[in-house]
Every structure is written in C-alpha cells, then in structure tokens.
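> example.struct
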C-alpha cells in the first residue's frame, strides 16, 4: 500500500511539472454513420507521442506551441492527417471513412495494429461484433459470451452454458455490465443462450485481472459490453431469421448530426411451432425468450451530450395455463457527458438494474406463487483529466443501493393449504471512490497506478439470524427501516506497468486487489435462474482477492500476428462454499449453510491471434489450477474447485474464399470437471446408503467438440438497397457425446449392483440463418 501511495505521489508530481506553456487539441472521432469510435489513435509523429479516444469517442492532447501534423487512425478506416498551427486550444472533430479493401486486406479488429504490444494494459481481451459474427454459432445464435469462452483464461461452466469462469474464479465473481448497468443473470433457456443480441452490440471488452480502479464489486473479471449508439445520418435496418429466433434492428437520426436512436428486438419461436400441434393441450403451452434493446443519444451543444439506454429480456414457460415459470432482467442507464474544459471530461450516470423470477401454479382453489427479485439504484460520477501527454488522470465516485428479496412462496386461491414461507428481505448501501493515473515515464515505460476505496453498509429493514460456532441458530435480531447495522470498508490498490523492449515486443505486469460484497448462492457450476444473491452481513465477510500477473507480448509480420504469454497467481480469502446437502432454496436461515475459507489459483495463458487478411482467427491454450481449503468441508483438506480444468484449448479460424463466401471453424478441448462420486456403500435397515469420495476427488471425461460454418453473401439489390447472406452452422460435427451429468442408481433386478448413467445434451446440430441489411 505504501508503494502505491509513493507511485501516485510521484506521478502527480510529474503532472505539475509538465503542464506549463502548452495548448490542447481535443474533439470526437466518429465513423460516417456518427457512431463514436472507441480506441481510435491520435499520434504526433514529430513528438513520438499521442493518445486514444475514450468510451465516448473523446480525445484530448496537450502539447507545446508549434506546427504539427496530427495523424488520426483507426484500423479498418482511412487514416487522416491534419496540419495544425497550435497557438491556442483547438477543437477538431474527425469523421473517419471505412476503407475500400481488397480481399487480402480484410481487417476485423478495431484497435491499432500494435495495441497488443504498445498498450499498458494486460490480462484483457477485446472482440468486435463483426468478429463474433464469424464464429460458428450454436443453433445459429451469434453469442457474445460463447465467443468470450474461447479466450485464454476463460472456461465455459458446462456444455452449452452462458456461465463462465475466469482464472480460477466462480461464475458469481464476474461483473457483467451492459452500458454500465449490472446484468445479474446473463442467460436464456437455462443458460444455452446469452441475453446479449449481437446486432445491438458495439464493443466487448473482458478484463481478466487488470481491472481499472473505476470498477469493483467482483473478484475475478469485468465484462464490459457497450451498445451501438445508432446511425445519425440516415435510416438503416438489419435482421435475421434463424432456427431458434428472429431479430430486427432499426436505427435512425432523431435530428441529423445531433442525435440518433437504435431499437433492436429478438424473439425465439419454439412456442409458435406448438400452434401446429393436433393436441389442443400442447397448443396452449408457451416456451420462448425475448430481448429488447433501446438506446438514444443527443448532442445538446459542443460540451454536453446525453445518452439513454434501456434493456428488457425475459424467458417464459407456461404449461397449459396450469404451471408457469419466468425470469428476466431489466436495465436502464441515463448518462450526461459534460466537458468542463478541453482537458477535463466528465460523465454522470443514473443506473437501474433488476433481476427477478417467478414460479406459479394456477388454480382458483389451491395454487401457489414463488417469487424473488434483486434490484439496484446507482449513481456514478466519472472524470478524466488530460493534463499532458505523460499523464491521464481518472477519478470518480459511485453510490449504489441494493435491495434483496431472496424468495417468497405463498398459496393463492380460495381454499389454499400452503403456508407462506418468506426469506428475510434486506438492503445495502455500497459506496466507492477511486483515483488513477496512467503515467508515461518515457518512450519505453508506462505505469498505471490506481486506488479504490469501498464502503459496504447493511441497512434495515432486516432480520438477521445469529449462529453459534456450529452454525446452529441462536436467535435473531430485527432492525428497523433505514437503520445501518453493519459496515465493511477497505482499500483496493491497482498497479500495472509496460516496458517496451522494441517496437515489436514488450513486458507487462500487474497487481490488483478486489473485494466482493454480494455473493451468488448456487449449488450448480453452470448457474440456474433460481440462483439468489446474498449480501455480506455480520455472518458473511466480504470476499477478497489479490492477483499478480506478468506477461511477454510479441508481434510478427508487421503486426499482422500477435502473440502473448501470461502467468498469474490469485489468492482469495473468505471464499464461499456450502456444507454437504445444503438447502439453498427458500431457506430463511440460508447464511447458516455458508462455509468460508481460502482459495487460490495459478496458471499460464498462451495466445496466437491474426486479425488481418483472408485467414483470421486465434489459438489459445490455458494451463491452470484452482484449489480451495475450507475447515468444515472435506475434513479441512485441500480440494479442487468444481470449475478446475487444468487444460483448456480453443482453435478458432475463419477464411474468406471470395468476397461472397466465408468458412469458419472452431475446436475446443478441456479437462473434465471435478466431481464427487460414490465409492462404497453400506446397508442400514432395508436401505443401501452410498459412501462418497472426498470433495471433487474424481473427474468427468475430457470435453472436446468441433463446429463448422459457411456464409454466402448474395449480391446487392440496388433498387431496394438490400444486402443479404445465408449462414449454415453445424455444432458438434463429429457427434461427440460429451458428459453433462452422471447419475448413480440401483439395478432394478439386483439392488446390490450400482449403475452409472451418463446424460449428454447435444448431438450433431445443424442450423441455418438468413441475415439481411438495408
């Protein structure tokens, strides 16, 4: 901690020494549709310095008075060079045109070619929507999270699942943001699809360890997804008809060059197929999911812009009006960008998040209703100060109010026999402030230093159960509405460095501390709609992680191919697991089921990636270990985490045979999940009782799968301005029967014989999708 304070002090001292007698060039960089470009490069060749645009396309560069040629570039777009006579502060907004490329020059990355080597950040992965689109899709559904699962250090929670684990962390230790709003359950159809419609997505960035000081609340990763802003020049539309669902996206100016909107919808139609059944009862069933994304933005003046984002998605299953199950997310983000000066950029946000589920049985006499919900109200103020080319200072504050309703089950109807069962509701306040500085010491060395302070407060109205050392309930304490009855606080230092060996290679390292105050209660490695979130409390301490990482980064063939090797070690305290045979559903005393201890993980990550030319893709390999030690579990002995997979390989390739035909493939391999198996048995009365192994002492068979896809682009219909394409995807080409679950049961004829039965989910699955653009 002292080291962090010293670095911050030195970097700020350098800022005060370098700000005199300079002027600022600032502005926004967009494409021809008005879409703001994130990470566009601004470079002054004579000074060998520059900057990049932020998440809103804004840049600021303070340099000495002189004449300059300023180079504006963004990979895949035509470079612009502006001659500037700098003797005062100037505003220069740039519109970059997309390059007309030959087939050999196709580019699918949005970052500068040498970003892998030149950027100070590490342990991050950025992937564009058009790159995701080329990956063979499960059931034809292009999926952001399925693409993320193919990156090094990231593992799929299970077959077909939208849950993922990062560097030995649990699925509940990932912070997933959609336009800065938290998405608590990112899955549709029990996890087979994610809630993110790729047609509405502009930018996807995963932080596996080097999480910026502006973000916190989770131990393992940050998945930051940004929606498109909409075309502010002209009306555009695109969509698709697939095997599982159909999509439609519309974007248009509100006022040309000043504001725009985008609306994007997606709905599955399994239930529509049921309408053709000859069975009337089957026709009454419903099974579908939908997503609706809406975003608008408006430029009030040169200093003020507002953005409004809204998302709603839901899964619905109704059986003949007798039984119903539904769950879904809602998010809302209102942001105001304001320029206090050419050097000080600010963003103020009001953010709402909500996740709920409901199970019901309809009956006029005896029915029941089971519901749960979690919602957040958040305010953020973020500032970025650009004093000079050596420093970029970021600071801000965040306040969040959480409301937890873990579960309520009650009878409905005139003659109900069900008693009401209610888990205690609770509230919490989470506060944070941060300060960071990206400090360029010289041409070769950059250090990014940050410090985040957090406060978490439990607030009534609440009922807290008190337990003894054996987790037996003693009594309970009731707190009145608005009463603060427990407080946690702590500091989270973050630091990384980059040293450039030459213009083709660099060494990077980072250290970060993260804290997590709300915890996912789930007995499933893949996650379930019925999972609930529980706040830290007098019975549950916050989770804490310290992660160290170092890496070597090298580009080849004029930056056409990037490679990296990263090593990491993560130590985690107050890690949560559950006692054997824990009861998590509708248990008012659920905190008594928690057991806490230590966990650690370490590994090596290898990546080779090519993003230009006809042939693109990447190869990733992760060698890792994730273990835990909790005194009350497994007799206090070390055991593998349920998501410990020592070997993980992903090969993703795409080839453009011509301007019209593209083929793609991906092959994945991973070690099997650790599991607990019965290893013996004994008779008790007339019953045979199994004896189980140590926790996670066995493994399922290794997992591997090959997927293929072919896309054919039709010619342009010039009369209607219509472009279209047809995509054929095949999931699990060689029909591998990967084990999803193993059941053990007694033989019907001889109860002394135990039978193991394997459950697998997906055989070979072809799908077809038609996409259109106009």
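> example.seq
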């Amino acid at each position: 901690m002292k080291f962090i304070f010293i670095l911050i002090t030195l970097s700020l001292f350098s800022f005060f020494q370098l700000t005199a007698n300079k002027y600022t060039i600032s502005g926004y960089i967009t494409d021809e549709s008005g879409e703001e470009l994130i990470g566009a490069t601004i470079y002054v060749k004579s000074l060998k310095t520059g900057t990049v645009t932020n998440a809103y396309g804004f840049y600021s560069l303070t340099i000495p008075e002189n004449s300059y040629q300023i180079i504006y570039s963004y990979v895949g777009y035509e470079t612009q060079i502006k001659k500037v006579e700098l003797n005062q502060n100037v505003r220069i907004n740039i519109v970059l045109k997309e390059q007309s490329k030959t087939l050999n020059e196709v580019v699918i990355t949005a970052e500068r070619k040498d970003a892998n080597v030149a950027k100070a950040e590490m342990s991050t992965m950025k992937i564009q929507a058009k790159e995701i689109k080329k990956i063979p899709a499960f059931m034809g559904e292009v999926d952001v999270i399925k693409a993320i699962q193919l990156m090094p250090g990231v593992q799929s929670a299970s077959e077909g699942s939208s849950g993922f684990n990062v560097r030995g962390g649990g699925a509940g230790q990932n912070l997933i943001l959609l336009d800065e709003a938290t998405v608590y359950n990112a899955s549709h159809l029990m996890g087979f699809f994610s809630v993110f419609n790729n047609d509405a997505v502009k930018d996807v960035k995963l932080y596996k360890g080097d999480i910026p000081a502006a973000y916190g609340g989770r131990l393992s990763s940050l998945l930051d997804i940004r929606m498109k802003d909409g075309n502010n020049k002209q009306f555009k539309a695109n969509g698709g008809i697939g095997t599982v669902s159909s999509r439609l996206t519309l974007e248009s100016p509100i006022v040309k060059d000043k504001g725009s909107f985008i609306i994007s919808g997606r709905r599955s139609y399994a239930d529509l197929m049921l309408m053709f059944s000859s069975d009337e009862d089957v026709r009454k069933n419903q099974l579908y999911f939908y997503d609706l994304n809406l975003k608008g933005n408006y430029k009030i003046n040169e200093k003020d812009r507002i953005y409004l984002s809204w998302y709603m998605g839901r899964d619905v299953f109704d059986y003949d009006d007798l039984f119903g199950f539904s769950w879904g997310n809602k998010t809302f983000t209102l942001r105001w960008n304001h320029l206090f000066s050419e050097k000080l950029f600010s963003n103020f946000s009001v953010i709402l998040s909500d996740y709920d589920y409901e199970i019901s049985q309809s009956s006029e006499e005896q029915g029941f209703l089971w519901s749960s919900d979690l919602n957040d109200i958040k305010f953020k103020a973020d500032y970025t100060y650009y004093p000079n080319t050596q420093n970029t200072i970021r600071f801000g504050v965040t306040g969040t109010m959480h409301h937890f309703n873990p579960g309520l089950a009650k009878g409905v109807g005139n003659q109900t026999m069900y008693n009401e069962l209610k888990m205690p509701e609770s509230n919490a306040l989470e506060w944070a402030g941060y300060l960071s500085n990206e400090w360029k010491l010289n041409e070769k060395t950059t250090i990014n230093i940050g410090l985040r302070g957090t406060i978490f407060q439990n607030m009534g109205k609440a009922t807290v159960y008190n337990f003894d050392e054996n987790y037996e309930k003693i009594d309970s304490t009731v707190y009145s509405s608005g009463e603060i009855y427990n407080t946690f606080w702590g500091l989270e230092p973050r630091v990384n460095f980059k040293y450039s060996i030459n213009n083709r290679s660099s060494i990077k390292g980072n250290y970060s501390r993260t804290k997590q105050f709300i915890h996912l209660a789930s007995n499933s490695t893949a996650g379930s709609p019925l999972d609930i979130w529980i706040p830290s409390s007098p019975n549950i301490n916050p989770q804490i992680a310290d992660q160290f990482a170092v890496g070597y980064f090298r580009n080849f063939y004029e930056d056409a191919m990037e490679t990296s090797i990263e090593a990491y070690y993560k130590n985690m305290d107050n890690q949560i697991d559950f006692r054997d045979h824990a009861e998590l559903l509708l248990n008012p005393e659920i905190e008594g089921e928690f057991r806490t201890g230590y966990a650690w993980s370490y590994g090596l990550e290898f990546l080779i990636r090519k993003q230009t030319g006809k042939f693109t893709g990447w190869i990733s390999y992760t060698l890792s270990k994730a273990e835990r030690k909790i005194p009350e579990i497994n007799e206090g002995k070390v055991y593998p985490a349920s998501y410990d997979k020592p070997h993980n390989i992903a090969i993703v390739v795409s080839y453009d045979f011509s301007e019209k035909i593209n083929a793609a493939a991906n092959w994945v391999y991973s070690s099997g999940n650790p599991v607990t198996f019965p290893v013996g048995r004994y008779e008790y009365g007339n019953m045979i009782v199994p004896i189980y192994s140590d926790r996670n002492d066995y493994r399922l068979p290794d997992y591997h799968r090959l997927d293929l896809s072919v896309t054919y682009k039709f010619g342009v219909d010039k009369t209607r301005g219509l472009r279209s394409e047809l995509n054929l995807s095949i999931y699990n080409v060689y029909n591998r029967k990967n084990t999803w679950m193993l059941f053990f049961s007694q033989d019907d004829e001889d109860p002394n014989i135990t039978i193991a039965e394997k459950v697998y989910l997906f055989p070979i699955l072809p799908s077809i999708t038609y996409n259109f653009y106009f």
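> remarks
The two ends are 55 Å apart (CA to CA).
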